[in-house]
Amino acid sequence: MKFFIDSANADLIKKFIDMNIVDGVTTNPSLLAKEGKDPIEQVKKILKLVPGPVSIEVVATEYGAMLSEARPISKLGKNAVVKIPMTRDGMRAVHTLSQEGIKTNVTLVFSATQALIAAKAGATYVSPFVGRLDDIGTDGMPLISDIVQIFRNYSIKTQVLVASVRHPIHVVEAAKLGADVATLPPDVLDKMFSHPLTDAGLKKFLDDWKTLQKQYGDDFSKAK
Ligand code: E4P
Predict the structure, then answer these.
(1) Is residue 205 assigned to a domain?
(2) Cβ–Cβ contacts within 10 Å for residue 7, how many?
(3) From the CA of 126, how far away is ligand 1's center (Å)?
(4) What pLDDT does residue 195 have?
(5) Residues flanking ligand 1, CB < 6 Å
(6) What is the pLDDT of residue 224?
(7) Dihedral, 44, 28, 173, 52 alpha carbons, nearest 10
(8) Is residue 217 part of a domain?
(9) What range does the domain containing 14 cover?
(10) pLDDT tens digits, one per residue of 193-202
């Protein structure tokens, strides 16, 4: 399963890039607004920082205007993916862009029918939002199961990108279901490193080592 970072914060992204555990990034207008910087400069910085795909969303809602934003976005970097909302105009734009060889990520997907339409239009990724479904009292994960099953049934190439991830359990469930990608807010990815038994185990190892060191002094940095 691929991990994308759902953030427009270059410092947070870099932290995970340096560990080589990140395969790409997703941004959206709200995440860029949160950074409060020139959005074009900010996405250019992220595109340079990240070796994998970086999704950048159009803010136009009409077909022609979407294309007018999508084409320059696609030229910002070889790894740029144009994020398009799940609308009728959006799907027409996805079809045109796919014919031009431009990668797309269809965002704001909340049903299996929307995912199927996005795939038929030629989307590279579809982004079902699990957390926002949970927020309104509907379990988001069965949607991932439905989309993965439908795409498998017909060998659909569009990748299932689980979005609006709120906690590590979403990631585990998405992986068990065979989703292609999960896009993770940095705080969720941070939580995935932690386990209280790891902390307790490390403390015990270090305490025992200190006892040994009192007797022998050296540590492995002096090993010859
Ligand atoms: C995905 O690409 C979106 O940017 C994101 O996952 C939305 O998440 P939210 O519901 O936490 O805003």
Answers:
(1) no
(2) 24
(3) 12
(4) 96
(5) 6, 26, 28, 107, 127, 129, 131-132, 163-164, 183
(6) 84
(7) -20
(8) no
(9) 2-196
(10) 999 999 999 9
